[in-house]
Amino acid sequence: MATDVKILAIESSCDETAAAVVKNGREVLSNVIYSQIDLHTLYGGVVPEIASRKHIDKINRVVEKALEDANLTLKDIDAVAVTYGPGLVGPLLVGVSAAKAIAYGAGLPIVGVHHIEGHISANYITNPQLEPPFVCLVVSGGHTHLVKVSDYGEYEILGKTSDDAAGEAFDKVARAIGLGYPGGPKIDKVSKEGNPNAMKFPRAKVGGSELDFSFSGMKSAVLNYLNTARMNNEEIVQADVAASFQQAVIDVLVGHSMAAVDMYNIDKFAIAGGVASNSGLRAAFEEACKEKKVEFFRPEPILCTDNAAMIGAAAYYEYVKGVRHGLDLNAIPNLKLGEKA
Ligand code: KG4
Ligand code: ZN
Asked: Least enclosed by CB within 10 Å: which of 6, 23, 90, 205?
């Protein structure tokens, strides 16, 4: 029998300082996440310089804790994995530098991981039976991509947003209706008390591929609604606006995803990224997939938002293919999916 592969993974591309130990790509031995959200809430969004400094403060302790929780030392580890892009360059550099220092000190190989590949791979942890090919919708604060996962580490982008990411739209609308940052979880919560059909916001279509997305029109429609209501001294029911906006996003995400499943004739569909923890979205996909007899996969909510376990899962499949990075690995803020360092 092949020996177990234990990977120490690091993630620091935005505002979570995270480290995890993952065995054979699917078994999480530890998953430590230090969220900086409270710090950035004061400013209404992530401040890159503050994020970088906080990552530096926290990274060593978070890595130590990941090893402690797994009851392991570096001697038990086979490789160090790290997110090297895309993301904020300062935050990425902290993780990449830490990974290189640990790998150099312990004589371990490094595996650099694409952040979105990590989000997609979170599905391998929650769903041990999931294997490619499948279609995956990646919806996070920075990305909205419909991806065909042809094999481990092999991706074809079927559609993407031409303006705002879905999570970004959630965050902007939340700010406009006075919910604050981060908007996604707050809109999710108040939407439960609102009427999703109270207002009809546009399900924007864009030119180009029918699988591409656009969220800026939908966001502007919400802002226009709010401005008009305020000018006319009409009452704004926060829960109704939140629920109607969320419904518009859900309709577009589900519609495009099911079209992709049809177009590529694939009977497995997965969601990933921070927005994939949205309860309304999960329920809508559950139903749509059931109707189509498509098998539906999703990571547990804690593995949807940024974490290092998903990076360890992605790294495993690269590691077994023989992928290794050198001490010259650099942070690449605009790294494309499928592009290799
Ligand atoms: O994947 P993630 O943690 O970081 C990025 O790689 O961007 O995603 C963060 C995004 C934020 O925009 C946040 O508002 C959104 O995911 N989000 C949600 C929910 N939880 C997080 N959006 C909708 N509903 C949620 N429950
Ligand atoms: Zn992310």
From this structure: 205
